[in-house]
Write a structure and sequence with these properties.
The protein is α+β, with helices and mostly antiparallel strands. Helix content is 25%, strand content 34%. The chain has helices at 51-58, 79-91, 188-196, 202-228; strands spanning 33-36, 42-45, 68-74, 94-107, 114-115, 118-128, 137-143, 148-156, 162-169, 172-178, 198-201. The longest helix is centred in the C-terminal third of the chain and has 27 residues, at 202-228.
C-alpha cells in the first residue's frame, strides 16, 4: 500500500542517503542497487539480490538501462498488519517489541516505479530489538502481502541489540520477546529456523473453516430429511 509518492515512504526519504550506513559492506559492486534505511534501526545486506531473476520475473530487459533498485525502510507501518501480528504474539505468550516495514522499488526512466515483493533472490536484514534485550531470544514475524505469516523462531539478539534474518520476500516485520527465554539455549536451531521459518497461510485456514461449516450444514439437512422419513 506504500508506493513512491506516499507521505513518509518515498525512496530516498530515510535518514541515510544511498551509500550511507544502511548499505554496510554487503552492497554488491553495482550502482543500480541503493539502500535507504535508518542505520540504527535497519541494516540490509544486498549480496543475495539477483537482478537477472528480478528482470526475468517481470519479463523485462535491464541491460543497457539506467534502472535502479531501491530497498527502503518505510517510516509508516500498516496498522492492520501490526494488529494481526500482535494477536499472534499474545496467543504465543510473547511480548511485542518493534515493528518495521521494508519495501523494494524498481525505477526505470520514463516509467512508473514497480514494487518488488518476491522473486528477487535474498536479503539479509538486521532489525533493532533494543540493546536492553541483548542475549535474549526473540521471534520475528513477517506478514507478506498475500496473507502468509512467516515465523523465525529462537533468534538471539546480538550485543548491539540487533536480530538478523535472511528473507526471500519483503513486507512487514515484527519482533517479539520470547518471555522467560534467555540466551543460554540459543544455537544451531535458531539459525536453521531463521533460514527456513514456519509458514501460516491465512487464506488457506479461512477456506478450511468455511468448508467445515458447509459440511456441517449438509449433514444437518440430511439428518432432518432422514428423521422425517
Amino acid at each position: 500500500d506504500n508506493g513512491p509518492g506516499d507521505d513518509g515512504n518515498k525512496p530516498g526519504d530515510g535518514d541515510n542517503k544511498p551509500g550511507d550506513g544502511g548499505e554496510e559492506d554487503g552492497k554488491p559492486a553495482d550502482s543500480k542497487i541503493l539502500v535507504d534505511t535508518e542505520a540504527t534501526q535497519v541494516k540490509i545486506d544486498t549480496k543475495g539480490l539477483d537482478l537477472n531473476k528480478i528482470a526475468a520475473a517481470l519479463g523485462i530487459d535491464l541491460s543497457g538501462t539506467n534502472a535502479r533498485l531501491v530497498v527502503q525502510q518505510n517510516r509508516q507501518v500498516d496498522a492492520g498488519a501490526e494488529k494481526l501480528l500482535k494477536e499472534r504474539m499474545v496467543k504465543a505468550s510473547q511480548k511485542f517489541l518493534k515493528m518495521y516495514d521494508i519495501s523494494m522499488w524498481l525505477h526505470m526512466e520514463g516509467k512508473e516505479a514497480i514494487e518488488i515483493t518476491e522473486d528477487f533472490g535474498s536479503l539479509t536484514i538486521s532489525l533493532a530489538a533494543g540493546r536492553e534485550y541483548a542475549g535474549k531470544l526473540v521471534t520475528v514475524y513477517q506478514l507478506h502481502e498475500d496473507g502468509e505469516v512467516i515465523i523465525y523462531k529462537d533468534l538471539k539478539v546480538d550485543e548491539n541489540g540487533m536480530v538478523t534474518i535472511t528473507v526471500t520476500k519483503l513486507s512487514s516485520f515484527a519482533i517479539a520477546l520470547q518471555e522467560g527465554a534467555g540466551g543460554s539455549n540459543a544455537g544451531q536451531n535458531a539459525i536453521t529456523s531463521a533460514r527456513t521459518g514456519d509458514t501460516f497461510h491465512a487464506g488457506l485456514w479461512t477456506a478450511l473453516v468455511l468448508a467445515a461449516g458447509a459440511a456441517l450444514l449438509v449433514l444437518a439437512e440430511c439428518k432432518k430429511k432422514y428423521e422425517k422419513k
